[in-house]
Amino acid sequence: MADGNSHSEEPHDTKADTNQRGWVAKRWGWIVTGVVASLVIVGLAVGLGVGLSSRHSSSGASSSNASSDGSPKNDPTTGDSSSAASIWQPAVGVKWHIVLQAPINETEIDVPVYDIDLFDSTASIIAWAQGQGRKVICYFSAGSYEDWRPGSASFKPEDYGNGLEGWEGEYWLNTSSANARNIMLTRLDQAAKKGCDGVDPDNIDGYENDSGLDLTTDTAVDSVTFLADATHARNMSFGLKNMRMIRAWT
Fold it and tell me: By the number of CB atoms within 10 A of the CB, which of 213, 214, 224, 240 ranks highest?
């Protein structure tokens, strides 16, 4: 329920500061997949139950991946060619550090893996972390519309439903929407361009909540499969959390 503030990587503004969210308890799991047909479950931390969230400002940036008929313009299988062997997978029990309220800096905790905000983090800071021998996972929300996000103007009213309880300005997303999927592909393109080793898509458990949409475990599996295919095509790992109801499928 938090990712970042600007595709252009500009500093936070006053609105961003007033909109910041604090720490929240959240059930976490980390699943990294080599191929969707055989998702490999790997826990970054066994029993870890902590999440982070922050809220930042909106910009006027928009996505432009939709085709004339509204269907996804980008095929999930396009992008850099990759194989299961070339996609990074963290070892079970690896130590990691999650930072979602601000960009990481060179004084951060010395751990093998960082989970950071996609929009708050520049390509240069990601390259710095990787130069220190670390892997970088980039966080964004894949299952909610957030009215302060860059690209929020690209969402259509029919793309989202009820608000997330306790999260002002955030609404459950129709993950089957072609327009919404195009926006997610744009986010994956940005993650790949910045050099992220993997992605951490949040809020994909709308089917467990009062979304006001026709979301089911089947639509969730379809959405996750779509995102994972597109992520792997861009040579990045795909993380899965907040989906305990469909873990048997994985």
Answer: 224
Cα separation, 82 vs 189, in Å, equals 15
Average pLDDT score over residue span 110-120: 92
Run of H or E residues at 126: helix 123-131
Is residue 177 within 8 Å of residue 200, measured between CB atoms?
no
By C-alpha distance, which of 186, 121, 180, 120 is closest to 155?
180
φ and ψ of 212, to 5 deg:
75, 10
Residue 247's pLDDT is 59
**What pLDDT was estimated at residue 36?**
28
pLDDT number for residue 38: 27
Q: What distance, in Å, lies between the first and last C-alpha atoms of the chain? A: 23
Beta strands in 101-236 (DSSP E): 113-117, 135-141, 144-146, 160-163, 170-173, 198-202
Domains (ranges, CATH) in the chain?
14-246 (3.20.20)
| Rounded Cα–Cα distance for residues 38 and 227 (Å) | 15
Phi-psi category of residue 169: left, alpha or beta, with phi > 0 → left and psi -120 to 50 → alpha:
left
- Per the DSSP assignment, residues forming a β-bridge with 161 are none
For tokens 């970054």, the residue is 44
Q: CA-CA-CA-CA torsion for 116, 119, 121, 127, nearest 10 degrees?
A: 90
- Find out whether 212 and 161 touch, Cβ atoms under 8 Å: yes
